[in-house]
Structures are given as C-alpha cells and as structure tokens.
Write a structure and sequence with these properties.
This protein has 442 residues and is α/β, with parallel strands linked by helices. The protein is 31% helix and 24% strand. Strand 18 and strand 19 form a beta hairpin.
Length: 442
C-alpha cells in the first residue's frame, strides 16, 4: 500500500536525528518549566537537579516523576507555565477524587496537538477527499476536539457529530457518505450492530477506515468491527494530560502505535522502583512533553502498562511504537469511554451520607458497557418500602452522574449484604476482560 504522511520529514526521520531533536527540545523545555512553574522548581530542587544538569535525553532519568497526585495537589493553576492570558482552552478528564484533571492549551499547543491527530488520520488513509465523522464526545473530553482539529488540518469534510444519537449518526454517515469514522471502539461496534439490524451489509456502508481509541480493545474486537463495517480499524492513543488523542497512532501495519516522539518522549519504567527499563520490557509508560507550553509535563507517569519497540516498520515511519496498553497500575476503569476511579464513587457515598461499602460491576451487553454500583444501606438507612428505596437510588445515581459524567445503575442493598473481604476489599468486578489485570501499586 502506498504510504502517505502528514509530516513526512518528522515521521520518517532517522532515529539519531530524532534523538538530537528531542535532546534540544528537552533542554529548552526543562528551562521553561523550571523558570515558570514553582511546583516543578520545588520538585527539581528536592531532587537536587538544576536545568543545567539536563544536557540531553541521556539525562532524562535525573528528573523527578510527575504523577496524577501532583496534578491534584497543584489543581487548578499550579502547573501552568504560561500566563492565563496566553491560554485559549482547557480540556478535562476525571481525577481520582472530586478534583478533575484540567489541562491548559495555548494556541500553539492546540496547533501541535491537531497536527498529531492529522498524522493519525493520514496514516489511516485519510486525505482532503474524505468525509470524516467524528463521533467522540465533544466538550471537556479531548476526543471530539482533537480529531475534529486533525480532520480540519487534513482538509477532510468534517462531521462534528459528538457521541450518541445513533440513528442520527447513521443518517449522516449514509446520506453524506462518511469514509472515516472516529469514536471509541465500543461505540463503533454498537454503530456496526445497529447498521446490521437495519439491514445494511458491509458493502453498503460508505466507510473505509475507523480511528478508534480512548479505551482498551482487543484484536477480536478489531476483527469484529472491521467485518461489520467493512473497514480497516486503526488504534489511537493519548491522554488529557498530554493534550489528548494523537500521542500515538497506528499505521497500515496494525502492529502497535507510532509515538509522535518529536513531541512526546517516552520511557518505560518499573512501576514499583521507578527504574527505567530497556526497550522491549513491559512496564509503566512515562511521557515528557517536549513542546507543550501552557501545561508541560516532565516524566508524567501514565499508569498505563505497555511495551515499546523500535523494529523497522514497513510503513516507513521511524517513530518508536507502543503496544496496545496492557492494563493499568491503578484501579482506573474506562466505562463507555469515561475514566472512572472507585475513589470517586467513595467520595460521592461519603458526601451523600452512605458508608463506603459498595461494589462496582461492569460488563458489556450489545457492545455497550453496563455499569452497576451496589451500595449498602446502613441499619439506620434501611427501609423495605420500595418507593423510598427507588427515590434514594435515583438521588444517589444523580450524584454519581454529576461526579463521573456517566450514569450508573445504583442498587441499594441490605446492611451487611456485601461480602466482606479479609484482605483488600473487592470493589470492582469487571467482566469485560479487555486487558490483563495488573495491580502493582495499591
Ligand atoms: O481518552 C484521549 C483519547 C481520546 C485517546 C480519543 C484516544 C482517542 P483520557 O480521558 O485522559 O484521554 O484517558 C486516558 O485512556 O491513560 C489509557 O488508559 C486510556 N486509553 C486512551 N487511548 C487508549 C487506547 C483519552 N487506544 C486514558 N487503548 C489512558 C487503550 C487507551 N487505552
């Protein structure tokens, strides 16, 4: 297959040249961060490292890590490296408790982010001749905004659908002849199923490619989506903290995602010791954002478990590849594309006067995640009057929706009916089996 690139010089740059570019950018970025962010200055001072100690990427290991806990501590403005008047946008995702992750962007940050998404669209065969249907959520979530921007940069006719309203998605897709679909893999599967129910065969569907990410998905799921929609399905990875989608993207080889390493310097570390692991070993993915101005990240611990490889790729790109994320080192769940932490549920329960005795059950029915939270009533709260229980469940589900952004089915259960564990409480029963479960840190 003939290859197209969005920024050929970067995407096919010889590795040594790329490392030189990364080194130059890193030196500048560390200086920018040290001079403009007190939080980083403190972290670096505590570790006894000054900007002049960082002469290139070989010195990266000297820098302290940054974690989601730091983002929470520094919320909302503590990690800003540019004056607010230079910032033009925020995007946001769930934090571990009540505080969300808020990322800031200058216009330049948005430009570079959109370039990353444009690279992904072109790698999936996109060009200005395409009609690109963006069915990721718009708003605070980065999926809609990122792919929308990338699609504009490529010059596709962009359909800014946002997620949901599947009937309308199908109507626009078929009436306007969408050729590229961007959404979560589970939503793609759901759209596929609905099309099938409506009597569409893969050859009747105008799509040729899909760019799916934001949650784990298996090779079986890829095969299923490809067959139902008659497309080639490409993976895309990113996180709000690093801008959003487009940190890494798949090419036609479909054997891992190329990291846009001119912007994001990747490391794999041992999640327990913090030691940097050699290429090919499995560990926690850590990113340093080399160009981000407003919300820069040095050695940000993603909690995603992954492997990097630099094997030659037939697409001609020299960018290092990451495997599909293989799990998390924390207890974050991704339900219907939304990040959910059990600690958020606990916060809601305590705020609403419940004890933190609960269990989350996640499953998948008709390609859609089901999300149930069983919560124990205390003896004082207990009632067997059905209408009262329904009212309490509704009110609790509403509070959870406000915190999480998605609606759980809340079931109140009798006091002491959730099995007590003698060790760690089993808070989550995830029946979807999308990744292996790796829990290294409590
Ligand atoms: O999910 C950004 C995104 C939007 C990526 C659209 C791709 C497409 P967050 O809400 O901050 O950002 O969630 C980030 O989602 O740390 C991973 O655990 C998970 N994740 C993202 N992409 C993938 C993927 C967006 N392709 C968190 N495969 C990350 C598996 C993914 N997990």
């Amino acid at each position: 297959m003939a290859q197209n690139y969005y920024q050929k010089e970067i995407e096919t740059m010889p590795v040594l040249e790329m490392k030189k570019l990364q080194s130059e950018k890193l030196v500048k970025q560390v200086k920018h961060v040290y001079e403009n962010v007190e939080y980083y200055r403190k972290l670096m001072d505590e570790k006894g490292v000054k900007p002049q100690d960082i002469k290139g990427i070989e010195d990266l290991h000297k820098l302290p890590f940054l974690s989601k806990a730091d983002l929470r501590d520094a919320y909302p403005y503590g990690l800003l490296a540019k004056p607010l008047e230079d910032c033009v946008r925020i995007q946001s995702t769930s934090g571990t408790t009540g505080r969300r992750v808020v990322a800031f962007y200058t216009q330049n940050d948005i430009d570079l982010w959109e370039d990353c998404c444009a690279r992904a669209i072109v790698a999936a065969g996109g060009s200005k001749k395409d009609v690109c249907q963006v069915a990721y959520g718009y708003g605070l979530f980065t999926g809609g905004a990122g792919l929308n921007g990338g699609s504009h940069k490529v010059g596709c006719l962009t359909l800014p659908m946002s997620s949901g309203n599947t009937e309308r998605q199908i109507q626009f897709m078929t009436d306007l002849g969408a050729t590229i679909l961007c959404c979560t893999p589970s939503y793609a599967a759901y759209i596929g199923e609905t099309l099938k129910e409506q009597g569409y065969k893969p050859e009747d569907i105008p799509l040729k490619a899909g760019i799916f990410g934001a949650e784990p998905w298996t090779e079986e799921m890829r095969k299923n989506i490809e067959e139902t929609l008659g497309i080639k399905a490409y993976d895309i990875y990113g996180l709000t903290e690093t801008s959003g989608p487009g940190v890494a993207f798949e090419c036609s080889e479909q054997t891992g995602m190329h990291i846009n390493e001119d912007h994001f310097l990747a490391e794999i570390i041992d999640p327990d010791t913090g030691e940097v692991l050699p290429e090919g070993e499995k560990g926690e993915l850590v990113f340093t954002a080399l160009d981000k101005e407003a919300f820069p990240l040095l050695r940000y611990r993603t909690r995603d478990i992954c492997v990097l490889t630099r094997e030659k790729c037939s697409c001609g790109r020299t960018l290092v590849k990451m495997a599909k994320p293989m799990g998390r080192t924390d207890d974050m769940l991704i339900i219907r594309g939304v990040n959910v932490f059990p600690s958020q549920i606990e916060t809601v329960l305590l705020n609403e006067g419940y004890q933190p005795n609960y269990q989350i059950v996640v499953d998948r029915a008709n390609n859609t995640d089901t999300f149930e939270v069983n919560v124990e009533m205390s003896p004082e709260q207990f009632t067997d009057k059905v209408s009262d229980v329904l009212k309490m469940e509704k009110s609790l589900a509403g509070a959870m929706k406000t915190m999480l952004g998605i609606n759980p089915t809340v079931k109140l259960v009798a006091p002491k009916s959730i099995v007590r564990s003698e060790g760690k409480a089993v808070r989550v029963i995830d029946k979807r089996r999308l990744t292996e479960v790796i829990r290294t840190t409590p």
